[in-house]
């Protein structure tokens, strides 16, 4: 029997993920405040619907929203999913939100017999488009097995990490590694640029060694082209690192590097760079050193 899926949140990530669910043959109902995006999905074969309508008609409802309060409103709020969802419905929240809030929502859903899984993703827009996202999941194993086919339609590396809250906690760890990697890379690129060497040649010289990484290969070519069109926006990553610090403080984990990274994100936001890709972290270091990382000898 073909699963009926609802998808709420058709932004940079949600839109291509929805298209991949259509390609996989699922019956899809979509909702977003951007009506143009909804229309594009409807033209491709989806139906438009509200969260409450999805609660009545869908087997699985996916949320892909910017922050904790958005997810809370869509699931628990007025005209939200739980107003109509019945026992056996599965909510998969693929947003990057606070583990505390995620568990709170899951507990409220369970009171109605509605299952919830937290399943944030990594890979950015390119992997959302080609359906190869890494997905880290928190929730019951039996529920995970029942929706694994859906998750494999939008990702390739799909891992059940543990109970509710485990997926979003894994995503916080992921965001620390990715963004601090970009920051360290940015320091190195600015050093090389200020020293006057060919940064592109340096990149090719080091990428095959221990300094090589997926982040290096994904971000350096874009930085050299001065391309900061967002795959992962600075303001969204600022939100994620804020969640990192709040969670860390709550459980007693000092994170000195992440705390500095959070201030770098705030500085970039104040500087008007909130909508840039997080590869734009390099612009913070460029401003300090009064140099620009670009192709050729600086």
Weakly predicted, low-confidence segments: none
Oligomeric form of this entry?
Answer: single chain
Mean pLDDT value: 95
Percent helix among the residues?
40-55%
Structural class: alpha/beta
- Note the run of SSEs as H and E: EHEHEHEHEHEEHEHEHHHHHH
Q: Please list the strands of the largest sheet in the order they lie side by side.
A: 3-2-1-4-5-6
Strand residues, percent: 5-15%
What is the overall number of helices? Answer: 13
Number of strands: 9
Give a description of the structure.
With 298 residues, the protein is an alpha/beta fold. The strands form two sheets. Strands 3-2-1-4-5-6 form a six-stranded parallel β-sheet, sandwiched between helices. The protein has a three-stranded mixed β-sheet with strand order 7-8-9. It has 13 helices and nine strands. α8 crosses α11 and α8 runs parallel beside α13.
Produce the secondary structure layout.
Elements (H helix, E strand, L loop, with lengths): L3 E5 L5 H10 L3 E5 L3 H9 L3 E2 L2 H7 L2 E4 L4 H9 L13 E4 L5 H12 L4 E4 L2 E2 L1 H7 L2 E6 L2 H12 L2 E8 L3 H30 L3 H8 L7 H11 L9 H18 L4 H15 L11 H8 L9
Parallel strand pairs: 1-2, 1-4, 2-3, 4-5, 5-6, 8-9
Antiparallel strand pairs: 7-8
Helix pairs in contact: 1-6, 4-5, 8-11, 8-13, 11-12
Which tags fit this structure?
9 strands, alpha/beta, three-stranded mixed sheet, 298 residues
Concise summary:
The chain is 52% helix and 13% strand.
């Amino acid at each position: 029997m073909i699963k009926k899926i609802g998808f709420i949140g058709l932004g940079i990530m949600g839109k291509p993920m929805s298209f991949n669910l259509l390609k996989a043959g699922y019956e899809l109902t979509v909702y977003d405040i951007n009506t143009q995006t909804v229309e594009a999905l409807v033209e491709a074969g989806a139906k438009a619907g509200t969260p409450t309508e999805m609660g009545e008609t869908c087997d699985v409802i996916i949320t892909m929203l910017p922050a904790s309060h958005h997810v809370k409103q869509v699931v628990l709020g007025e005209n939200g999913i739980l107003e109509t969802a019945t026992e056996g419905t599965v909510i998969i929240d693929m947003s990057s939100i606070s583990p505390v809030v995620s568990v709170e929502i899951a507990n409220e859903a369970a009171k109605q017999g509605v299952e919830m899984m937290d399943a944030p993703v990594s890979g950015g827009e390119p992997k959302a488009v080609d359906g190869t996202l890494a997905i880290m999941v928190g929730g019951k194993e039996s529920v995970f097995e029942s929706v694994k086919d859906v998750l494999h339609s939008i990702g390739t590396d799909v891992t059940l990490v543990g109970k509710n809250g485990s997926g979003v906690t894994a995503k916080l760890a992921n965001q620390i590694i990715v963004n601090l990697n970009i920051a360290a890379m940015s320091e190195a690129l600015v050093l090389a640029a200020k020293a006057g060497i060919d940064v592109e040649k340096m990149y090719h010289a080091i990428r095959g060694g221990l300094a090589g990484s997926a982040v290096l290969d994904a971000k350096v070519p874009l930085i050299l082209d001065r391309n900061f069109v967002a795959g992962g926006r600075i303001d969204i990553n600022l939100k994620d690192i804020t969640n990192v610090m709040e969670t860390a403080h709550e459980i007693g984990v000092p994170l000195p590097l992440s705390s500095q990274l959070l201030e770098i994100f705030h500085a970039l936001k104040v500087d008007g760079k909130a909508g840039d890709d997080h590869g734009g972290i390099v612009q913070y270091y460029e401003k300090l050193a009064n140099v620009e990382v670009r192709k050729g000898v600086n």
